[in-house]
Design goal:
single chain, globular, about 400 residues, five-stranded mixed sheet, D-Maltodextrin-Binding Protein, domain 2, 2 domains, alpha/beta, 17 helices
Length: about 400
Amino acid sequence: MRPVRIAVRRFDPFESAIRRQFADFARARGEAVGLKIEALELNDLHARLFAAGGLGDGSIDLAFLSTDWLAEAQSAGLIENLRPHLARAPIADFPAAWSRSLVTLQDFAGGFWGLPYHDGPECLIYRKDLLQAAGLEVPRTWEAFHAAARRLHAPAQNVYGTTLALYPDGHNGFYDFCIHVWSRGGEPFGPGARPQLCTGEAEAALDFLRRLARDGAAIAPGARALDSVKAGLLFCAGKVALMANWFGFAALAETWAESRVKGRVEVAPLPQGPGGRSVSLNVYWVIALASGSTQKALAWDFLRHVATGAMDKVTTLEGAIGVRRSTWSDEEVNRLIPFYHKLDALHGHARELPLHPRLAEVSRVIDELLARALDTDESSRALLAEAQRRLEVIIA
């Protein structure tokens, strides 16, 4: 029997959790079953699965997919509809044991296209010791966030006020732009993913991001080279006072052996902009069954095992974020990570990106928009108008 081959986003907790979960699966199955993990950075993972054909050519059985990629994979026939597998070999308490927000993005076009694996909406992550020492309240607006970052910025002590994850991987830069538009009362996309960038809210969002990114008295250097993982690890190293990032990095700061900030971390809803409200983003990782897999029954059996309460807790204990409500409220987990129970409430602030098979191309345009905003003095209005024209062609 060939090993089960799974492509994952390169992140130590993902890899270690999958290994533990597969070892438990093999023990429960009572037979020698092999596992091969292929861990790739974000852009490389997308290229391996799509451009290189990994989902369809039989070289991969299971794959981590961002929910952003699901429409692209489904429309190209690259992933399996899981409904027939759920009917043949159901998962106990599915979907009732999950938050509705984690079983909706993969439910479209008459199918169900991936099991949720790792969650954690964007939130405000901060060093409560530093805010308390400076007499600062938790910022509720983006202007207060910027002011707090400037107040806490202390490069001589190897602590920076904040950071951004601006590496152009179609990930955090794109997400942060959308969050900033939403939090100011705007809508970056209309029905059918139609772009709506020529608005005052989008202009204010881009103005704020470029101002923050250029503020050497508030932000850690090298943000253009940071993706969300590297930004999160910078926080865990004790070098960032507060940031907008995924909940998972707050949890990692409490569980990772190398964290320098255990016991000093807290989370809160993201700040809001003028005329808006606090808004987060609901993007999560699912494990999908590749259409080209030649051992779909075995792969599905493993997915069913991963979905159990005990294995979802393993995901969390290894440093990622479990997706079952039982894990979020688990006593042991909340002793390790005292703010873990807040996940359910944070989901109440979460928005979703539009479902579109070319969303990866859309994200690249926003990445390039942000790069131009940082590299030039062109007006935000002009930059947004150019991005609007490009996106209209893509969406059409």
